[in-house]
Amino acid sequence: MKNTFKWVMVFAVIMAITSFQTSHAQVNYGLKGGLNFANVGGDDVEDAEMRIGFHVGGFLDISLAGLVAVETGLYYSQKGYQYNESFMGVSFEFENVSSYLDIPVVMKISPLPLIHFYAGPQASILLDNTYKFNGESESDTEGMRDLDLALVIGAGVNVPGGLRASIGYDIGLTSLDEDGDFKAYNRVIKLTVGYRF
């Protein structure tokens, strides 16, 4: 039942954005991917360290006017955090890798032809979660929120020929704990390159 709800939601978001276009709108699509510099923040988080993951997927860009566009997409995205500690000469390594399906819906403003700024909401569906401790790993999503909401902000450049690059920041708005008792939120810096067909 949970998986059915997830895919219905994905389909609804895509249909809503697609139906938003007008006969005068210009529609572009392409592929994007890049690095995630992920961590967690919040009142209940101490000394968590950044871990590097990646994101990859496709986007749909609807230009509403010369300066304004709406962009959405579907991206597989790795988030999480890590700890590296030592106690009495013994080192401990802990890593949390969370896999999500990111669905951003952002408004893009282009004050100059090659430069754009963007901001908007993002829904992220939890696909998997793996804990790694001193080389041993275990997959477990129990107690984690299935749907993570975030604010996405960033800036980018559009290179002639269809290439584009951007830097963005995902600010998690919902606690990763499904009960909300543990205040920890995703924080992700994204370096992205893409190609518009």
What does this structure look like?
This protein is mainly beta and 197 residues long. The chain has a single domain, classed as Beta Barrel (Porin). It is built from one helix and nine strands. The protein has an eight-stranded antiparallel barrel with strand order 1-2-3-4-5-7-8-9. Strand 2 (51-63) and strand 3 (68-87) form a beta hairpin. The longest helix is centred in the N-terminal third of the chain and has 19 residues, at 2-20. It is elongated, with a radius of gyration of 18 Å. The model has no long low-confidence stretch (mean pLDDT 87).
User: How many DSSP H or I helices?
Assistant: 1
Q: State the order of secondary-structure elements, H for helix, E for strand.
A: HEEEEEEEEE
Give the class from helix and strand content and strand pairing. mainly beta
Estimate nothing, just give the exact number of structural domains: 1
Widest beta sheet: strand line-up: 1-2-3-4-5-7-8-9
What does the secondary structure layout of this molecule look like, with pairings?
Elements (H helix, E strand, L loop, with lengths): L1 H19 L5 E16 L9 E13 L4 E20 L2 E23 L2 E19 L2 E4 L7 E13 L3 E10 L12 E12 L1
Antiparallel strand pairs: 1-2, 1-9, 2-3, 3-4, 4-5, 5-6, 5-7, 7-8, 8-9
